[in-house]
Amino acid sequence: MKDIIIVGGGLAGLTSSIYLASAGYNVTILEKNSHFGGKMMDVNVGSYHFDFGPNTITMPHVFQQVMEEAGLNSEDYFSFQQLETHTRNSFGDGFSFDLSSSHRYMLEQLKRLDPKGANSYKQFIQQITRLYSYSEQHFLHRTFESWQDYLSPKLASALMKVKPNISMHDFMKQYFENPKIIQALDRYATYIGSNPYVAPATFAMIAYLELVDGVYYVKGGNTNIAKGLTAAAEKLGVNLYPNTPVSKLVIKDKRVTGVTLHNNTTLEAEEVIMNGDLLKQYPELVEESARPHFTNKRADSYEPSISAFVILAGLNKQMDGLHHHHVFFTKNYEKEFKQLSDGYYPSSPTIYVCTSSKTDPPVSPDGDNCFILVNAPALTDNGITLDKEAYKQRVYDRLKAFGQDIQPHVVEEQVYTPEDIEEQFGSYKGSIYGPASNRKVDAFRRPYNKSQDLENLYFVGASTHPGGGSPMVVLSGKNVAHSIIEKDK
Ligand SMILES: Cc1cc2nc3c(=O)[nH]c(=O)nc-3n(C[C@H](O)[C@H](O)[C@H](O)COP(=O)(O)OP(=O)(O)OC[C@H]3O[C@@H](n4cnc5c(N)ncnc54)[C@H](O)[C@@H]3O)c2cc1C
């Protein structure tokens, strides 16, 4: 059977490996870090467990299917628990609003807080369900390998129906009137690293995932998904090499014949899949002359999604009033996105705190495990340098102003900046979701899943189709594996 090399062992690469190994291919994953799972990374400090990366899990069936379709029982690897009322949104003036997949509870709150929203909630749910179902039918379960893939009349008609012409913010305003509720729903744009004031309403389908399909947590930590996929790959005979950075692809006659490792060893392969961030990895590993359809200029033409400033804080107590998913909003959300798009850190940032110990106390027996995330600009060369300590202090001070004075209780702490994210995962400019989807064409202009220049080179992961976020990258891994299997039939 064919030898396949996957460069990078993130969720997408692991998924491809599982499908290909179970179809009989000889698969090798070369991963530069010591762990597999990429941004879905276990961080254990003292007695505190943190899920770095995906804290909000949607579409559990996508992860379960990988296991089931490889003949494995997903429950042996990870089990999902639905969080019905999943996210508390708090505002500086004491206003608070929960997001829930219970329609009854949503209506109860809206009747009090947003009468227009209460009247139109049913219609809103129908519309976001429609958006999701178009995406599911036309975008999520297929690869995009060349421009011809966009030409099918069915796809063109679907594209017109997914509301690419209005922004997500304007879409939300059609159904809701309370600016704070609109702000809480606008935040869904950040799930793809984008700006709600410009990202097309197409992405309101994310609201469908949270408000209809549900938000999930994996018992023992979401990183059990990455550990489960790694264990499954190993069981199916995938050769897993951690601490093995690839420095070059070997190219002959428009084909990749193998890869060169940092120690100059060359490994041969008949097909190669790149899982690292394409915008950074493709230019780094393949000489520009071998990729005329993807020049450095083209790579630079993509706008990176936003990055993150993350504090992992282990506390010596359980904080009252802190929810598993809790967002503390800035007063002026538009200003926050303007600062981000200008390359600045928000002066008064919205703060997301995920405390999984609220649902699963054993992951952090000595107190809360707060994963604190603030939107940060992708790296630019505008000369702005971050004073990490001062910014961290600002975040703690803002939480204190919201009544969550956690800083005196911090006993373990780690801080990650966009520079760290770029360095650790090889992310383009530190972006966390690949290219942004701010312009209406962006969503449909992501790099293809297959190289236009090298016959046997494929791309999976957040910077390609169908997009960023953990379920999407798993779908990209699956779609590319299927494409290789189909080609060989
Ligand atoms: C702080 C943060 C919060 C997030 N929150 C959420 C969330 O709540 N929900 C959600 O669904 N998603 C979230 N995401 C996004 C999600 O983590 C990513 O979309 C997803 O994990 C990306 O997976 P991937 O397989 O595309 O790539 P990655 O996870 O980036 O994996 C790529 C791998 O390739 C390796 N690599 C790169 N170059 C080389 C090389 N030359 N040689 C060998 N190996 C190489 C890297 O080390 C890495 O392990 C978040 C991400 C971050 C950073």
UniProtKB/TrEMBL annotation:
Domain Amine oxidase positions = 11-485
Q: InterPro entries of this UniProt entry? A: Amino_oxidase (IPR002937), Carotenoid/retinoid_OxRdtase (IPR014105), FAD/NAD-bd_sf (IPR036188)
Q: In which pathway does this enzyme or protein participate?
A: Carotenoid biosynthesis; staphyloxanthin biosynthesis; staphyloxanthin from farnesyl diphosphate: step 3/5
Q: Which cofactor does it need?
A: FAD
Catalytic activity field: all-trans-4,4'-diaponeurosporene + 2 AH2 + 2 O2 = 4,4'-diaponeurosporenal + 2 A + 3 H2O
Tell me which UniProt keywords the record has, alphabetically.
Carotenoid biosynthesis, Oxidoreductase
- Top-level taxonomic group: Bacteria
Q: Which Gene3D superfamilies match?
A: FAD/NAD(P)-binding domain
Task: Report whether Oxidoreductase shows up as a keyword of the record.
Answer: yes
Can you tell me which family this protein belongs to? Answer: Belongs to the carotenoid/retinoid oxidoreductase family. CrtP subfamily.
Q: What is this protein called?
A: 4,4'-diaponeurosporene oxygenase
User: What's the source species for this entry?
Assistant: Pontibacillus salicampi
> Upper taxonomic classification of the species?
Bacteria, Bacillati, Bacillota, Bacilli, Bacillales
